[in-house]
Design a protein that fits this description.
- Helix content is about 40%, strand content about 15%.
- It is α+β, with helices and mostly antiparallel strands and about 700 residues long.
- The protein is globular and about 90 Å long.
- Strands 1, 2, 3, 4, 5 and 6 form a six-stranded mixed sheet that branches. It has a five-stranded mixed sheet with strand order 8-7-11-9-10. A four-stranded antiparallel sheet has the order 19-20-18-21, covered by helices on one side.
- About 40% of the residues are buried.
- It has 26 helices and 21 strands.
Length: about 700
């Protein structure tokens, strides 16, 4: 039975595509009759794929591993009816084509022997060495994880921690899951859906984190075809209806080749069709699909500098779409991915997305950590390069997120918390780099705040954090950080101070959330903020007090306007006392105020001071249709209305609609209605509203 026959509805790729064809490898494992005397031919396919990456590799160890695996699995069959040996062979073929080194391939051939046969780990170690034994042991532990069992969180936690020190274990697991997903058609529909959901929630994000795009893309398509059958059918229909779409890209590719040839730049220009899920996402985002939306151009060059040379020629000879430009060469993604992304418009108005990278970058983009060889091979003058005394394996290629996972899992109070935070962390698809004011860098997930940066830098000492500076400016702890920001956490000298429950609303990283939750659980009295019962007034300050433009009945309390909703006169307001006795004023409809009210916190009576419309800071959100010069026209209108723009954020367009968020300073709160009216009058803007969160620069 062919791999394609058992893969639920994945459309075939066009010929000439530079992506590694893993489906071909699945078929290769099943060539010939199932008789034992023909099966050894299959190891020849592994050797052929392996020599393409490692011409001088010693194939003898692979043959010995195959002989042991075939003899051990003899008499075992898969549910599809094929001899079981076809499965480890297919897994090994996938990794061989991705460029895995010999040790990984040897472990892949043997990865099921210890669990399913009489072969022992000691026997594997004696015959193939400690590295292979270590990998087989790690994969065996992962194989024991029942993702649907009630004990899953604790089991998965132990397994992931046990194998997290070697990314090659995870690579073998991903190849194993890919082959199982290809042959999932022989199982009951309900079991297909259960396995597909776990693949979607855990294995696909894991493949993304390890940078193995070749496996990730095919897993996504297989999962999509099972869990979203109607959407998958529509995407396949779109592809079938636009079978000639590649011609439009091929025409642009020919023009690109001519431009680069005239510029004396040696480059390979290829048309790269989108896979099934990518077509679906593009159709949802753009509505009506153009012919050039069904693929991208891939330009491969020899050197890093050539990438920018190609970019310059394309932007000179074609009309660039500036909003589509991204530089992942100078700033690689968290999963080692490097490439220049741009889009150019041809003379006829058609737009083509272009990826520019070196051949080595392309290899890493497709195979991720698998393409990096053996990360534990000893350096020429660096000792044995094996295990360190404490059992940790020194891996220079281990991604930052994996190192963080191994750290914060030790602090997780229970398996369920670990499981939830793991899935949340895997759901993050982008990482940012921020700089410490004292020097050094921090890697954080996109959307991280100053709270996350404080805990990433100072650990438990971040409980004493009072505030932060971002790019030299004092900001709230809930401020979202951008790639390249410089952040400095400000700590109190009082070692007894601790975090507020409100910090959990701003914490995005598992380590920060676990640390805050642990401190609050250990200090229930501090975590339970006092009700806002009136304090005895001081003899010298009886009666209401006016501060920050607000009248309050708390003469001794400090009053501040909440940054989450930026209230200004004449908004309806409410207030609550927070840790430290400060009274925080919110707009009445603010979600944070509603949560505090629902938690039985007593509000503090407040009102705006009569006639007080002093200067204020407010965040506005403009919804508009995309058009050229929209941002310039908006900022001109705001400046004319007397607003000083502090920060601005423009979200990526969705279905030709764009959202702009501005934080502005007004000399008088009475100017706010006129400002919002002026923004609504800008052509293309159809709504302006107050934002519930401040914009970030």
């Amino acid at each position: 039975m062919s791999a394609e026959a058992t893969s639920p509805g994945v459309h075939g790729r066009r010929r000439g595509l530079p992506r590694i064809d893993l489906r071909r490898l699945g078929r290769a494992a099943l060539l010939g009759p199932a008789s034992r005397d023909r099966l050894p031919d299959a190891i020849g396919h592994v050797a052929e794929a392996h020599r393409a990456h490692f011409p001088d590799a010693d194939m003898a160890v692979l043959h010995r591993a195959y002989v042991l695996a075939e003899a051990s699995h003899r008499g075992q069959y898969r549910k599809s009816g094929e001899p079981y040996i076809t499965h480890p062979l297919a897994v090994t073929l996938i990794l061989a084509e991705l460029g895995a080194e010999t040790t990984t391939l040897t472990a892949a051939i043997l990865h099921d022997t210890v669990e399913d046969t009489d072969v022992t780990l000691d026997q594997v170690g004696r015959e193939f060495g400690e590295e292979v034994r270590y990998l087989v042991d790690g994969v065996t532990k992962l194989e024991k994880v029942d993702y649907g069992a009630a004990a899953e969180p604790e089991t998965f936690r132990k397994m992931l921690v046990a194998t997290g020190n070697d990314v090659r274990v995870m690579s073998i697991k991903l190849a194993d899951r890919l082959h199982n997903m290809r042959t999932l058609g022989v199982m009951r529909p309900e079991k297909q859906e259960r396995i597909a959901k776990v693949t979607r929630d855990v294995l696909v994000p894991l493949a993304e984190r390890l940078g193995v795009q070749a496996i990730k893309s095919e897993l996504e398509d297989l999962v999509f075809a099972i869990l979203c059958r109607e959407d998958a059918a529509r995407a396949r229909a779109l592809i079938a209806e636009n079978a000639s779409a590649g011609d439009a890209l091929a025409s642009i590719a020919q023009d690109v080749r001519r431009v680069l040839r005239e510029a004396d730049l040696t480059a390979e220009v290829l048309v790269r069709p989108r896979h099934l899920v990518s077509v679906h996402r593009a159709s949802v985002k753009r509505g009506e699909m153009r012919a050039t939306d069904f693929g991208r151009l891939l330009v491969l060059v020899a050197e890093d500098a050539d990438c920018y040379g190609v970019l310059g020629e394309l932007h000179t000879c074609f009309t660039p779409v500036i909003s589509e430009f991204k530089d992942f060469v100078a700033a690689p993604k968290f999963n080692l991915y490097q490439s220049l992304h741009t889009a150019v418009a041809a003379p006829d108005g058609s737009v083509a997305e272009v990826l520019i990278r070196t051949h080595q970058m392309h290899k890493v983009a497709e195979a991720g950590v698998v393409a990096l060889g053996n990360p534990y091979a000893p350096a020429p003058a660096a000792g044995d390069g094996g295990d360190t005394p404490d059992g940790e394996r020194a891996d220079p290629t281990r991604p930052g997120w994996l190192s963080r996972l191994l750290e914060w899992q030790e602090s997780a109070p229970d398996p369920d918390t670990f499981w939830k935070t793991l899935r949340a962390d895997l759901a993050q698809d982008r990482e940012i780099t921020v700089f410490r004011a004292e020097g050094g860098m921090l890697g954080l997930p996109a959307g991280a705040t100053c709270v996350d940066a404080a805990y990433a830098q100072y650990g438990e000492a971040a409980h004493r954090c009072l505030g932060a500076r971002v790019n030299g400016r004092l900001v709230a702890l809930g401020t979202v950080l951008n790639d390249g920001d410089t952040v400095q956490a400000l700590l109190a000298h009082d070692t007894t101070s601790g975090p507020s429950p409100e910090w959990l609303e701003h914490a995005r990283t598992p380590s920060a959330r676990i640390s805050i939750t642990g401190w609050l659980a250990a200090h229930p009295d501090a975590a339970a903020l006092p009700d806002a019962s009136p304090r005895p007034p001081a003899a010298v300050s009886a009666g209401p007090r006016t501060t920050a433009g607000v009248v309050t009945e708390r003469p001794d309390a400090q009053v501040r306007l909440a940054g989450c909703c930026t209230p200004v006169p004449p908004d309806d307001i409410t207030a609550f006392q927070v840790r430290g006795g400060t009274v925080t004023v919110h707009r009445a409809e603010c979600p944070a105020a509603r949560r505090m009210s629902q938690s039985k916190r007593s509000p503090v009576p407040v009102s705006w001071a009569a006639g007080d419309t002093a200067g204020c800071q407010v965040t506005l959100r403009a919804e508009s249709f995309g058009r050229p010069r929209l941002m310039a026209d908006l900022t001109d209108a705001m400046s004319t209305a007397g607003a000083a723009i502090i920060s601005a954020t423009v979200e990526p367009p969705s279905r030709q609609r764009v959202r702009h968020t501005y934080t502005v300073q007004l000399a008088d709160a009475a100017l706010l209605p006129g400002l919002m009216s002026a923004m609504r009058e800008v052509p293309g803007v159809y709504d302006v509203s107050r934002a519930q969160q401040p914009a970030q620069a």
